[in-house]
Amino acid sequence: MRVFVADHPLIAHKLTVLRDTQTTQPTFRALTEELVTLLAYEATREVSVSPVTIQTPVTQATGVRLSHPRPLVVPILRAGLGMLEGMVTLLPTAEVGFLGMVRNEETLQPVTYAERLPDDLSDRTCFVLDPMLATGGSLAAAIQFLFDRGAQDVTAICILAAPEGLDALEKATAGRHVKLVLGAVDERLNEHGYIVPGLGDAGDRLYGTI
Ligand code: PRP
Ligand code: URA
Fold first, then answer.
1. Which of 25, 97, 178, 192 is deepest in the core (most CB within 10 A)?
2. From the CB of 121, is ligand 1 less than 6 Å away?
3. pLDDT single digits (tens) 132-184
4. What are the Cα distances from residue 33, in Å, to 36, 64, 79, 141, 149?
5. Which residue has a Cα nearest atom 5 of ligand 2?
6. What is the per-residue pLDDT for 59?
């Protein structure tokens, strides 16, 4: 697994506002999208392109276009849905698949309640979106879904990660081609499996259930 942690003052600034308990729901949503667009720039660095020839108003020129089949973007519901617009801003032609997962807050194990993915992912570049990598259970299960459909190239974008989740994901994806792009790596998990200092419950803050 290759891990890229953002190192940019604009991302650090937006993350600080995102973490702040005073930040309102509309601002939290807008910042989530903006952060994902910035992280997507790094996440798509190796996206597959093919050479093309085009006509400019002045002359013929060579360039590149995104290759076929189109990339697949998979937000993990619910909180990952708040990242989708920020991602498709950069990849407007991507196909979108969905995985619904919720963590059992007693056992911290992920439960899958929805799945809408293409059957064959063998030639697809896949991007998984989930703001929080805490124990790593949800993201490991989501990436395994993609491997089971034949995916060989998976990039995940998370806004925050805990070291414990990174270790778990490293073990779960050993020997596979997985790239992880993160806004920041925080200190640790607390006794309830929340990221410290973190930002609280990302789904609740995005969708207003608090
Ligand atoms: C959150 C988050 C991740 C998961 C991370 O989702 O969006 O999917 O927890 O925890 P883990 O790394 O320990 O698995 P949650 O289960 O709260 O569901 P929600 O998105 O519907 O709020
Ligand atoms: N899920 C969240 O939304 N936040 C955390 O800190 C951990 C899991």
1. 178
2. no
3. 999 999 999 999 999 999 999 999 999 999 999 999 999 999 999 999 999 99
4. 5, 27, 12, 24, 28
5. 194
6. 98
- Nearest ligand (C-alpha, residue 135): 1
User: Domains of the chain by range and CATH?
Assistant: 2-49+66-207 (3.40.50.2020)
Extract the tokens encoding 38.
């910035």
Residue to mutate, 186, 191, 195, ligand 2, most ligand atoms under 8 Å from C-beta: 195
DSSP assignment letter at 81: G
Q: What is the DSSP letter of 162?
A: -
Q: What is the mean pLDDT of residues 79-91?
A: 97
Residues of the binding site for uracil: 195, 200-202
Find out whether the beta carbon of 201 lies less than 6 Å from any atom of ligand 2: yes
